[in-house]
UniProtKB/TrEMBL annotation:
Name of this chain's protein: MCUR1 regulator
Main location group: mitochondrion
Organism: Callaeas wilsoni
GO biological process, one term: positive regulation of mitochondrial calcium ion concentration
Family of this protein: Belongs to the CCDC90 family.
InterPro entries reported in the protein's UniProt record: CCDC90-like
Subcellular location: Mitochondrion membrane
Gene this chain is encoded by: Mcur1
Keywords (A to Z) from UniProt: Coiled coil, Membrane, Mitochondrion, Transmembrane, Transmembrane helix
Keyword Protein transport appears in the UniProt entry: no
Residue spans crossing the bilayer: 160-179
Cellular component, GO annotation: mitochondrial inner membrane
Superkingdom in the source lineage: Eukaryota
Length: 180
């Protein structure tokens, strides 16, 4: 063991300050004992370089084991995640197929409904056209009947007028003859 202070210089310093040589040596020896006791306690808590290297090797081997375990765990977790991912992909594809089927079904239903509505509208237009045509025919028939009736009445009026005129002429000629 080495002491990191000069014991002789300390003895000399103590003698200069009024201590005797024997007192100075006793004080320095007590300091040396105290220092050695403290160093012994410090050395008990300390490890040697060899012990430190052994502990470091043990820690490194434990770290290597943990790394291997982590790699194995990571691979197993990764494969579990991969299989779970594949399951989710399959479920997603099934759901996508179902959605596409539903969309196709809804489109077909909508087309069918649209075509039915178109045919109903066409039928309604056809009915309206037939009703309109029938109404036009009735109106034309009624107009023709009215024209015929008007012509008939006109002819009757002309007959009555002509009869009235001839009757008046006959009466006027009768009076004329009577007066002349």
């Amino acid at each position: 063991r080495r002491l990191y202070f000069d014991t002789h210089a300390l003895v000399c310093l103590l003698e200069e300050n009024g201590f005797t040589t024997q007192q100075s040596e006793v004080i320095v020896s007590a300091l040396v004992k105290i220092t050695n006791t403290n160093l012994d306690m410090i050395y008990k808590d300390m490890v040697t370089k060899m012990q430190q290297e052994i502990a470091l090797q043990q820690v490194m081997s434990h770290i290597g084991g943990v790394k291997k375990d982590m790699i194995i765990l990571e691979k197993s977790e990764f494969s579990a995640l991969r299989s779970e991912n594949e399951k989710i992909k399959l479920e997603l594809q099934q759901i996508k197929k179902q959605v596409m089927d539903e969309i196709t079904k809804v489109r077909a239903d909508n087309k069918l409904n649209l075509n039915l509505e178109k045919s109903r509208v066409k039928e309604l237009h056809a009915q309206q056209d037939r009703a309109l045509t029938q109404t036009d025919r009735k109106i034309d028939t009624e107009v023709a009947d009215l024209k015929t009736m008007l012509e008939s009445h006109k002819l009757d009026n002309i007959k009555y007028l002509a009869g009235s005129v001839f009757t008046c002429l006959t009466v006027a000629l009768g009076f004329y003859r009577l007066w002349i």
